[in-house]
Amino acid sequence: MDRIVLLPGDGIGPEVVVEARRVLETVASAQGLDLEFAEELIGGASIDAHGSPLRDEVIDLCRESSAVLLGAVGGPKWDAMAVDVRPEKGLLGIRKALGLFANLRPAAVIPALADASTLRPEVVEGIDLLVVRELTGGIYFGEPRGRGEEGGKRRGWNTMVYDEDEVARITRVAFEQARLRRNHVTHVHKANVLDVCQLWMDVVEEVAKDYPDVTLAHQLVDSCAMLLVRDPGRFDVMVTGNLFGDILSDQAAEITGSLGMLPSASLATGGFGLYEPVHGSAPDIAGQDKANPLAAILSVAMLLETSLACPAGAAAVRGAVSHVLAAGHRTGDLVLEGEAREVIGCREMGRQVLAALEAK
Ligand code: NAD
């Protein structure tokens, strides 16, 4: 029996997670998986109920489970709170506490949605890349950090620090993923300026020796950002640190044109993972049945593949999503301005995916 913890969170989080759960239940029964669900609060919802964005009990429950499916956290209601007690602290906290060191964000253009990108169709065609971002180290966690005053001037500082083991384990994740895809890894760095990136260079080269079937390229982060909009089809797997990965994965998401379509996985060692849509809590449409649940549903596909070792279930989910889109069903975020098309809600999109799954 595998226990899945649901952390719907705030805003549209609960709306998309409920659809994703229905999909997971349907696939589980078709594939003979034995699942049990537990649901808990995180983010603003947890602040309101318990005074803290993430309780220790929730972390313990996640530790005793096979995977976590999270919606989104945050919203204007909690924006004025101090940084260390805000909903986002719940997300950073759970990543750290569960040792989720590898963040995987695929960005692929689904043919039926190629028009949604701001880039020209011939540039967008063939985008199918995966950003593998180190998630628990680097400048977001490095010490010393702080703000102070020196010589009458205010100062602020952070530290970008990695040790060789942290670099090696994320690099291995990237090479393993490349083996499941097109066997190419691009290491993104700023080694011409940053010493820490010179360490990355050395370690990535060492790890690459264990993967002779995978090709490796090194790319400066600034030129990588340019290439991502000029020729995104050249990338297969990108591996990089926390800061560069944060920025590039959002850029990669945007070029596919549909935030409501993008899943993600954050993995620990041993197959445990936290799966969540890339988008936030979308307070502007929360509670109106307007959210696109497909990013959450595609996160379920990643969960099936990685934490439940059920690639057939993952393929069934992806196939059902492609089928529904090819049939012309769209939530509001997928409809272009001026396009005359019927818009369906979150619930109906979920129903369509279930119907496509059950029709197989
Ligand atoms: P957002 O992703 O919530 O929304 C950006 C825009 O995209 C909005 O117009 C929204 O309506 C739309 N959108 C997002 N997801 C959608 C979906 N599934 N279907 C249809 N439309 C969708 O980003 P934001 O507005 O910058 O942030 C809102 C809140 O979410 C903030 O409090 C922020 O801190 C939080 N946030 C949380 C996460 C997370 O939980 N991982 C990530 C990003 C932002």
What does it look like?
The chain is 41% helix and 19% strand. The model has no long low-confidence stretch (mean pLDDT 94). Helix 1 runs parallel beside helix 12, helix 6 crosses helix 7 and helix 11 (311-326) crosses helix 12. It has 360 residues and is an alpha/beta fold. Strand 1 (2-9), helix 1 and strand 2 form a beta-alpha-beta unit. The protein has 2 domains: 1-110 and 260-360, 3-Layer(aba) Sandwich (Isopropylmalate Dehydrogenase), CATH 3.40.718.10; 128-255, Isopropylmalate Dehydrogenase. It starts with a strand and ends with a helix. The site of nicotinamide-adenine-dinucleotide has 23 residues, from helix 4.
Topology:
Blueprint lengths: L1 E8 L3 H19 L3 E5 L4 H7 L5 H8 L3 E6 L14 H11 L4 E7 L12 H4 L3 E7 L11 E5 L2 E5 L6 H17 L3 E6 L5 H14 L6 E6 H10 L6 E4 L1 H15 L6 E5 L5 E5 L16 H13 L4 H16 L19 H14 L1
Parallel strand pairs: 1-2, 1-3, 3-12, 5-10, 8-9, 8-10
Antiparallel strand pairs: 4-5, 4-11, 6-7, 11-12
Helix pairs in contact: 1-10, 1-11, 1-12, 6-7, 8-9, 10-11, 11-12
Bound molecules: nicotinamide-adenine-dinucleotide.
Give descriptors for this structure.
19% strand; alpha/beta; binds nicotinamide-adenine-dinucleotide; 12 strands; ten-stranded mixed sheet; Isopropylmalate Dehydrogenase
